[in-house]
Amino acid sequence: MTIMQPVISRRGFVFGISALGGGLVLGLRPGAALAQPDLDAIAGAPEVTAWVVIEPDDTTVIRIARSEMGQGIATALAMLVAEELECDWSRVRTEYIGAAENLARGKPWGDMVTSNSNSVRNSQEMLRKAGAQARSMLLAEAAGRWGVPVEDCSAKDSVVSHAGTGRTLRYGEIAEAASRRPVPAEVTLKPPEAWHLIGTPVRRLDTVEKTMGQPIYASDMRLPGMLYAAVSACPAYGGKLKGFDAGTVQAMPGVHSVVPVGDSAVAVVAASWWQAKTALDALPVTWDESGGAGLSTDALQQMFEQGLDADGDAKFALRRGDVDAALASAVTRIEAVYRAPYLAHGTMEPQTCTAHVTADRAEIWAPTQNGEGTLRAVAGTLKLDPSQVIVHKRQLGGGFGRRGIAQDWARQAALIGKAVGLPVKVVWSREEDITHDYYRPMVAARHVAGFDALGRLVAWRVRVCGSSIAATLSPQWLRDGQDMAMTDGFHDDDMLYDVPNFESGSVIRTTAIPVGFWRGVNLSQNGYFREAFVDEMAQASGQDPYQFRRTLLAGAPRTLAVLDEAARRAGWGQAPDGIHQGIAVIEGDGSVCAQVVEISVGTDGTIKLHRVVCAVDPGYAINPDTITAQIESAIIQGLSAALSGEITFKDGRPEQSNFHDYTILRIDEVPPVETAIVPSGDRYSDRWGGIGETGLPPVAAALANAVFAATGKRIRTLPLKAHKLWPG
């Protein structure tokens, strides 16, 4: 198998522009897409680097660096380019950019990471600029041919027109010549009022392909001579592989080999995955699980709650006023401890990766949220130079953070591929996927609040204790031993309640259980901690939860507007008899989201979900259809976690293994979701917020608050299935 490296000229590096197959190719800096360019074709073309390719038939290829995992980002990012390019949207398609190409060119596409709802907000300016630069060059080429001022020409639907004479030229006719023109360093971007594509409900570019089953996911990979691997890692975290008896399965149908994978896993490689899995199940394996002794849920929970009292270990994220003095003089004080469990990702596509490793090369086909991270992980595992590794990005069957910085699945594939010497596709079973995750951390939080004689909130202290994602996956992010992300939702920019004396801090406790990014990251639990306790404070002050929030948000008009919209659309306080409402609002990733959950509780304690009303302000809305879909998706995932989601441990072993005991809402259990998009644009500042995670953080708190309204019981520990709920 030939592995080609990208070739780049000096002009391509300096200007990011070249002719490829008679087309215009523009490169700027950082963006996810549907297909990946053929590396042989790239290697044979001069000056390959691009955001935009315009082919002779007017097809516009928009190359995007972010990962498509169902969130519709390939369409949204293409819309940003197309808006400024003025190309014919019906002739737009998208392609992935490879990590090796990005590194070879000095990273013109940035870090290429798809996480933290960053794709639009971190790419929008450069992508719009790429479109505007391409349009400027096309206009200049047409004007030059006609001998007219460029300002007398206009572009629309991939056609340049001259107003005075009515002459026209198609983009495909002039793209090659335009590509030889200098790239303008500065261009004027359209004001929002001139947009005609951005902000409209556009059908996703991959809808037809996905309906027809055409996109190639990592699970779909087929290569000549490819083998399959099933993997089993030590059942207990902290454990190791002691040994296995390969001879007992070597003669089973299709079995090629049995190989150790690092010091904690073993794999069976066979002609089919089912043959590999059948042999793996029959393989005698000896594990050393002593490292997991005592690593059980009750002990972990106790450790994290004790950490809330470890003043010497606390790191502070935000301090306003004098909390100690204000609490000491408060007429009324309330205190509460909240807990959130470990959560698995449960992606529909379990972890998988295909690798072909030779003595001096590695080629990887990966469902990755971080193409360069996969490349670096494979290169480091195999002790290869990054230039010796090619990563082909494939569409993901769900990510939610699992396929970002944590690259365990890629390392496994690289090691197995090296041992086998042939192309091999590694596929985890669902059980392996759920029991060997990088989990959303278990976290404990303590709130203390104080009120004056008039019931006004004068002080609020919050401390959280759990394992640090940064310490697990990216220790370089720590500052003086502090992981600032642990207190997301309690910083100056994402905790806009006006409290004169406020303090937030965190305590890190590290265990053998790996933790990682999960949709909403720390806001997924901190949103629950914060907004459920806000309801407790409202009760202590004798106020309606919605009105209590309105008072505290008087100086935060953007958040207040979103809160008001959700309350208005839900008819706050006007629910029918037997229906109870809970409300919550969260700022995060540059967006604001407020939700009202409506429930009823039966005499047997069963919760019935009636409706979720959501208002969201992403700053600017690229594709309203995609935003609505992402909000609905996040709400379903958040409700599933709040109602029943938890991973518990006994001596290092996860006690849940599949969807029968780690449940997700079924279609008949999902309530109607009403989403109102209320983009503020530049009314408060020029904001481009994220949306992929935005809908999740408020929903657990709104649900818990609705349960209190229905039953009078405070839910301070998730999931709700652990509680007996009786009305009254």
Give a short summary of the structure.
This protein has 728 residues and is α+β, with helices and mostly antiparallel strands. The chain contains 19 helices and 28 strands.
How would you describe this structure in keywords?
728 residues; alpha+beta; 7-stranded mixed sheet; 19 helices; 28 strands; 29% helix
Question: How would you explain this protein's 3D organization?
Answer:
With 728 residues, the chain is of the alpha+beta class. It is 29% helix and 22% strand. It contains 19 helices and 28 strands. The strands form 7 sheets. It has a 7-stranded mixed sheet with strand order 11-12-9-19-16-17-18. Strands 1-2-3-4-5 form a 5-stranded mixed sheet. β17, α11 and β18 form a beta-alpha-beta unit. α5 (119-146) crosses α6. The longest helix has 28 residues, at 119-146. The relative contact order is 0.11.
